[in-house]
Write a structure and sequence with these properties.
Blueprint lengths: L1 H16 E2 L4 E2 L3 H17 L4 H18 L10 H18 L2 H15 L19 E2 H15 L5 H20 L12 E2 L13 H18 L3 H16 L17 H4 L1 H15 L3 H17 L21 H15 L20
Antiparallel strand pairs: 1-2, 3-4
Helix pairs in contact: 1-2, 1-13, 2-3, 2-4, 2-13, 4-5, 4-6, 5-6, 6-7, 6-8, 7-8, 8-9, 8-11, 11-13, 12-13
Amino acid sequence: MYLTIARKAAIAMNDHYLDRASGVYENQWWNSANDLTALSNLAIIDPSFETTVRPILHTAFERAPESQGVLTFENAYYDDEGWWALLWISMYDLTKDPMYLFEAQSLFRDMALAWPTPCGGGIWWDRDQTYVASIANELFLSVAAHLANRVKHGNDKASYVNWAMKEVDWFEHANLINEYGDVIDGIDLHGCTRNHTDVFTYNQGVILGGLVELNKATGDVSLLIKAQAIADAAMRNLTNNDGILLEKGTKDEGAAFAQFKGIFVRNLQLLQSAAPKTSYATFIRNNADSIIHNAMNHDSYLIAPVWQGPFRDPNMGAQGSGLDALVAAASLTNIRDEIPSVRNFPSRFT
């Protein structure tokens, strides 16, 4: 069921929001990278959809920067670069074409130039060096760890692992996780204090994928323990009474904030694939079910921002976010729900 509905939601996303000349959705830059990632991930689990997806993604690879009046995927914001890098890694996984991996490596090199900040490490959110954001650093970790598992040369892998471990160590000591176990938005430059305390779902998500990939590269099981703690906190603190994910950090239902929840579920599925728990599988399925029954128009297959309903004000961010959740649910088919022993290792983060 999930795969069939995911295909229809993907087609609706492309029919309603995609500029096929550029591969960009409604001229939204970082959101487009995420919508395209959802498409690529769908094609990975559904090879019959690959012929639909490949031309769209290749068009974006060739023409998306031009649509923004630039020549490359580098821009003023390092988190934007991280989203596009993760897209091209997903496209490499789909096609095995090294040009996509090379692009991700190029973007990572530019992100690495933003290290360190005055706060003992980490990368800046932007080239103007105005903010140290959790999301930019989570993406830096995730891109490095993903690349470590895909490059061919041992020295390259070691370099990416080193960067990822530096980021993990800095993130821990930067006090970016609050007393409830949630990742906050960022830190203030004046004294590097934790005063940007807004909590958004995507900040709970991207770090999960980074820690999972770094575990694959290193075998360090404590990384999975850390990921599980963050995931468990998000499921406990950022949901309604029915366990449906909420964006509690804002009442804005526009495309930017609507994108966040799907990013969490996408990365929770990566954690589920590495360290399965029944609660994660149930959470993913329940949220996908709520989208289908409460937040989707079954004539158009458009998706609204609020997953518990009602259906209102669909947008391209909500569409990609919902598609992420549907793809995550469809990906669960062959994954066992729990391996209890994973949770018994001591954590290096406590």
